[in-house]
Structures are given as structure tokens and as C-alpha cells.
Amino acid sequence: xxxxxxxxxxxxxxxxxxxxxxxxxxxxxxxxxxxxxxxxxxxxxxxxxxxxxxxxxxxxxxxxxxxxxxxx
Length: 72
Fold this sequence. Notes:
- The chain is mostly helical.
- It has a single domain, classed as Helix Hairpins, CATH 1.10.287.
- The chain is 79% helix and 0% strand.
- The model has no long low-confidence stretch (mean pLDDT 92).
């Protein structure tokens, strides 16, 4: 995943796709952290993009969880 995710794209994804994307982003974040510690990080802006992507996905998952709980 090399591009910044848009909120519109996140809303169109299924729960399974969101969870899978979150796992991939966590792996990428770990790799970037390792690169930063070893001085090999090329794109430092990607770290903040990943942070925002994680927040978008978690927000959407939580929103769906609350919507589901509210409809019961």
C-alpha cells in the first residue's frame, strides 16, 4: 500500500477488507520504524500518512460497530 487512503475509499470497503488493510498498514508501519532506526528511511512523510490511514480505518470500523449496536 503506497498511496494515502481516502475516506470515501474506506467507507466503500467491507469489514474484512478494512481489517486486512489495517494488518498491512501495521506491517508497513513496523518496517518504516525499523528503517527510521537504522537510518534507511527514504520517505519520512509516509509515517504520518500511515498514522492517518490507521485512524481512518479504525474510525470507520468503530462507526459500523456503533451503527450495528444501535440498530438492535
